[in-house]
Design goal:
This protein has helices at residues 13-25, 51-62, 83-92, 104-120, 139-147, 178-193, 211-224, 233-238, and strands spanning 2-8, 33-37, 40-41, 45-46, 66-69, 129-130, 152-155, 158-161, 164-166, 169-172, 199-203. By secondary structure, the chain is of the alpha/beta class. The strands form 3 sheets. Strands 5-2-1-11-10 form a 5-stranded parallel β-sheet. Zinc ion (ZN) is lined by residues 6-7, 70, 74, 133.
Length: 239
C-alpha cells in the first residue's frame, strides 16, 4: 500500500500536519509515506519562501518520507472545451489539472521552475520524480515528462517507471461537497474490500476538513494495514 499525501504547500500546511498526525496515530510512519509538494501553489507562495512549510517538509524527509514534485502551481490555465477535456479538467480535476492542456514548452517551464524552487528550498530529492496535478497530462506534456529523466512519474492509471505501469489500483476521496464525499467513500470502501494488490492510497489535505471524510480515510487505512504493507514510493520502486 502506497500512501501519499497530496498538495503539500504553505496554503495547506495545517491540514497536512493534521493528516500526518492522523497517519501517525494509526501506525503509518513518515518513512512509509510519500509526500507530493506543490512548489508554487496557485502562484501565491513558493515553498522556499515559507519557513514553517520548509521545516515540515525537511522533518518528513529526515524521517524517510519520499518527497515528489507535484506540478508547479497546480492550477490549470484557461478552459478545456472538448467534451473529454471538460469532463477531465473541470469536473474530475476542477481546474486543477495544471498540465491537461499544457504544450511541450509550458511543461518544460513547469518542470524547470518547480525544480529550481525545490532545489532552493534544499529539497532537491523532490525534483527526482513527478506527479502531475490531478494525475492529468496532455499528450505533449506526457512526452516531456517521460523524457525528463525522472526516477518515476505517476498518472491515474499507475506509477510509470522504466516504461512499466505499476500499482494500478487507486483509492482516494473527493471532499468538495457532501455528495462527492459520500460517493467516493463508498467507492473507497469497495476498493478496500477487494483482494489485496499493489494499491495507491491518496490522501488530500481537503479530506481533513470534513470530519466524516477524515474518519473514512482513517477507517480505510486501519482496515488495510493488517492485510497490506505500507511503503513509500521510493522503497517500493527502488527497493
Ligand atoms: Zn494535487
Amino acid at each position: 500500500m502506497l500512501i501519499s499525501l497530496h498538495d503539500v504547500s504553505p496554503l495547506t500546511l495545517d491540514d497536512c500536519r493534521d493528516a500526518v498526525a492522523m497517519l501517525d496515530e494509526v501506525g503509518v510512519t513518515p518513512a512509509e509515506l510519500s509526500v507530493f509538494v506543490i512548489p508554487y501553489h496557485e502562484g501565491r507562495i513558493a515553498v522556499d519562501q515559507h519557513a514553517p512549510t520548509l521545516r515540515f517538509l525537511r522533518g518528513l524527509a529526515d524521517r524517510g518520507a519520499t518527497l515528489v514534485m507535484h506540478g508547479l502551481t497546480h492550477r490549470m490555465a484557461g478552459w478545456a472545451w472538448t467534451p473529454r477535456g471538460f469532463a477531465r479538467g473541470h469536473i474530475f480535476a476542477r481546474g486543477q489539472g495544471e498540465l491537461l492542456r499544457a504544450t511541450a514548452a509550458d511543461t518544460a517551464r513547469c518542470l524547470e521552475d518547480g525544480s529550481q524552487i525545490l532545489r532552493r528550498a534544499g529539497l532537491a530529492q523532490a525534483a527526482r520524480a513527478f506527479v502531475p496535478p490531478a494525475w492529468l497530462l496532455s499528450p505533449a506534456a506526457r512526452q516531456v515528462v517521460r523524457e525528463a529523466g525522472f526516477d518515476f512519474f505517476e498518472t491515474f492509471a499507475g506509477i510509470v517507471k522504466d516504461d512499466q505501469l505499476r500499482a494500478r489500483r487507486v483509492i482516494g476521496w473527493g471532499s468538495l461537497n457532501a455528495v462527492e464525499a459520500f460517493g467516493t467513500s463508498v467507492w473507497a470502501r469497495m476498493q478496500c474490500a477487494r483482494a489485496p494488490a499493489d494499491t495507491r492510497l491518496a490522501v488530500h489535505p481537503a479530506d481533513m476538513r470534513r470530519p466524516g471524510q477524515r474518519k473514512a480515510v482513517r477507517h480505510a487505512i486501519t482496515r488495510l494495514l493488517p492485510r497490506m504493507h505500507a511503503q513509500s514510493y521510493a522503497r517500493y520502486l527502488c527497493g
